[in-house]
Amino acid sequence: MMKLRGIGLGFAVTAALVAMPMTASAMECEQITLGSAISLTGKYATNGIHAKNGYEFAIQKIKENGGIKIGDKCYNFNVIYYDDESKGDRGATLAERLISQDKVQYMLGPYSSGLTKAIAPVTEKYKIPMVEAEGASRSLFNKGRKYLFAVLSTSEQYLASAVTLAAEKAKEAGKETSSVKVAVAVENDPFSLDIRAGVLDDAKKYSMNVVIDEKLPRDLSDMSAILTKVKLLKPDLLIVSGHSKGAATAVRQIGEMKIDVPMIAITHCEAADVTGKFGDVANDILCSTQWAETLSYEDPIFGTAANYEKEFKAAFTEYSDKTVPYQTAQASAAVYVFKDAFERAKSLDKEKVRDALASTELMTFYGKIKFAPEGNNIAKPMVLRQIQDGKYNVVAPSEFASHKLNYPRMAK
Amino acid sequence: MDQVFGNIGMLFEFPVVNVKIILDGLMIGALFALAAYGLALVWGVMNVKNLAQGDFVMAGGYIAWWLTGKGLPPLLGVPIAFVMLWGIGWIIYKLVISRVIGRDLFTSLLATFGVAIMMAQILNLLFGSDTQSVKLEYETLYFFDGFVDVPIAKLIGVIMAAGLAAGVIYFMKTSRMGQAIRATAQNPRAARVMGIDTDKVYGFTFSLNAAICGAAGAIIVMVWLIQPFYGITYSIRSFVIVTAAGLGNLPGVIAAGLGIGMLEQYGAHVFGIGYQQAIAVLLLLLVLMVRLAQQRRVRQVLK
Predict the structure, then answer these.
(1) For residue A378, is it within any domain?
(2) Same domain, yes or no: A40 and A125
(3) Is 60 exceeded by the pLDDT of residue A234?
(4) Would you call A272 an interface residue with chain B, using a CB distance cutoff of 8 Å?
(5) Does A253 touch chain B (CB under 8 A)?
(6) Is the minimum CB–CB distance between A245 and chain B shorter than 8 Å?
(7) pLDDT one-digit tens code per residue, A144-191
(8) Hey, where are the domains in chain B?
(9) How many whole angstroms separate alpha carbon A240 and alpha carbon A248?
(10) Cα torsion angle, A129, A130, A136, A140, sign
(11) CA nearest A367: which of A290, A308, A310, A301?
(12) How many CB atoms lie within 10 A of CB B69?
């Protein structure tokens, strides 16, 4: 069923393109078929659809820009999607099916680290290059995989920069970094545990004192127990990561309990819509993000990050009243990486494409992309934004920052 | 381990923490009790163990959230969710439940499990998998130097829950339908002989249960948050509470609900929030073990 829909979509796009005034060569382009098992239903459906839209938008943009040129031929991407229902075993089965039945030679990633972890062994077994944009867990990149490439920053970097920021602030105030107290509350899943590991590593580097280190349950809806301890132990930095429910619960209860911590850093602010739901309470909270539309990155296909945002909204009108999520931007970047690799490989041979992917060095609207031998992107830093008067303003890293950090946070 | 002792020490060092934990526990417990109360009804009257209990709660929450998004005052979501879920409950009764009454335990468990999966997925398709909540524009009251906070929204939620529970108890005690439900629970065959339309009673009971859960969900969305797949936690707690309190023991259900709310908060404080739900499941195990021991004693007497 999903396959039919995918093909239907393909037809719709083709029809739209035929209707558009195009150069003759663009119409004669052949197709390169990519496969993707992605979450269209189940708990990851929202972000899975964000990612799929990002793939589709990039495919269309590449098509409008004359496709992928290999020698004197040109190609367009076409994706076979299957719905993995947000389940790992289903994802692995579908990857098998894409490769052995549909004869897909190149894969785009699924949504979430967990699903990527389920699919990567399959693509590795069949030596199918996979560029993924939504699995950040560092455990994906320590298995010596050769066919897995990820455009995003790995998860231990997500909030580590907040620790650096807290250390800077302590030094500015003339205090030792060892006097800084850190409280960490993360969900008990691979992604959030990576974040915790990154934070604890950096906190150790500055010999900070970790006063609270707790795991949040998967179906969290109340974290007053942790926040009560925060009130008693008065940490200088509070780190919370638990997907959108963690963000929503934390911000809501930080407001209700008047938690007065000078620096609070969380993940998934946008997904939880903390500014829309909780208003002023969310002010001065730091949010990590892979990408922001205000960054000064640029490439020839999508233009600037701001231009990507604008054109994406025009193509997918359901996003017109919200910011485009970074999940979408990185999905588009993954498709762009494939285009670049095909053109440099000058071949459709999957081994040559893999080698071309491994030597990628590409500037995109999403940031710089250069893969480590393990396949993770080492060229792009994580970005910290602070919610200032309901707006997300980039405050770190300083070379891309558009605004100054508000410190200490004012409890609302 | 050090952390656990440190946390216990905190309870004595700062006694006010206990006040906060108990208050939070009671407020959470009141909503657990509401969902459990509905389960006790269905279980007691129809002998159906409804695994979709928590999903009714989520459905009620989403209805209230959706209406608030359309500009309705959030508090109005509670009665509307009650009525809507009544209808949904009735449809599910006619389609599914009416066919499994009187069958064995596993048939009803499987059927309601299926309903639970369906409902969670439908909510997910309709509203997306993000967490949602409704923010009430009320102040928060602070006591003990700002240490203990009681958001008025939570207080309103608890009062509504109490009001709903009182209303249902009054209805069961005084109305004809309430009498018929209780009669059917005691002995369905005798009730039929006495001219009670048990099929109607079953349908009514199941709809009432769904409606109670719906109202609970509409309150929960105002004080915590909802997600299509959060239903199961409310189902599990309902089972724990009903098993602990016993069927047909309504004051017991309410007391057990409040108690579990409190114990979970203490557990979360001492062992870390990750073990909050483990406390509920651990309690279920304990209760089952005690019940089993009690039953063994009864059997020995029967010999």
Answers:
(1) no
(2) yes
(3) yes
(4) yes
(5) no
(6) yes
(7) 999 999 999 998 899 988 999 999 999 999 999 999 999 999 998 888
(8) 14-266
(9) 11
(10) negative
(11) A290
(12) 11
- Are A144 and A253 part of one and the same domain? no
Report the gap between the CA of B164 and the closest CA in chain A (Å).
Answer: 23
Contact across the interface for B273 and A223, Cβ inside 8 Å: yes
Contact state of A229 with B269 under an 8 Å Cβ cutoff: yes
Each residue of B175-232: pLDDT tens digit? 999 999 989 988 889 999 999 998 999 999 999 999 999 999 999 998 888 999 899 8
Q: Give pLDDT tens digits for A360-406.
A: 999 999 999 999 999 999 999 899 999 999 888 999 877 778 888 99
Q: Do A175 and A145 fall into the same domain?
A: no
Q: Which one of A186, A245, A266, A268 would you mutate to disrupt binding with B, by most B Cβ within 10 Å of its Cβ? A: A245
Determine whether the interchain pair A256/B228 forms a contact, defined as Cβ–Cβ distance below 8 Å. no
- Side chain identity at A71, as an amino acid letter? G
* Residue A269: partners with Cβ closer than 8 Å, 6 or more residues away: A247, A275, A282, A285, A287, A289, A385, A387, A392
Enter the ipTM: 0.77
Contact yes or no for B28 and A222 at CB 8 A: yes
Name the DSSP letter for residue A335.
Answer: H
Number of domains in chain A: 2
| CA of B203 vs chain A CAs: smallest distance (Å) | 31
Nearest CA in chain A to B3: A212
Contact B133 A248 (CB under 8 A): yes
- The nearest CA of chain B is from the CA of A231 a distance in Å of 8
CATH topology of domain B14-266: ABC transporter involved in vitamin B12 uptake, BtuC (1.10.3470)
**A267 belongs to a structural domain:** yes
Question: Which CATH number characterizes residue A273's domain?
Answer: 3.40.50.2300
**Residue A405: inside a domain, yes or no?**
no
Yes or no, beta carbons of A41 and B17 under 8 Å apart: no
**DSSP letter assigned to residue A375:** S
User: Among B167, B244, B201, B159, which Cα is nearest to B47's?
Assistant: B201
Range of the domain at A81: 2-153+293-370
List all residues of chain A from 191 to 230 with a beta carbon under 8 Å from chain B.
Answer: 213-217, 219-226, 228-229
Q: Are residues A147 and A172 in the same domain?
A: no
Q: Is residue A251 domain-shared with residue A395, that is, in the same domain?
A: yes
Q: How far apart are the first and last CA of chain B?
A: 48
User: In chain A, which residue's Cα lies nearest the Cα of B266?
Assistant: A225
Task: Say which amino acid occupies A344.
Answer: R
Which chain A residues contact residue B151 at CB under 8 A?
256
**Rounded to 5 degrees, what are φ and ψ at A322?**
-140, 170
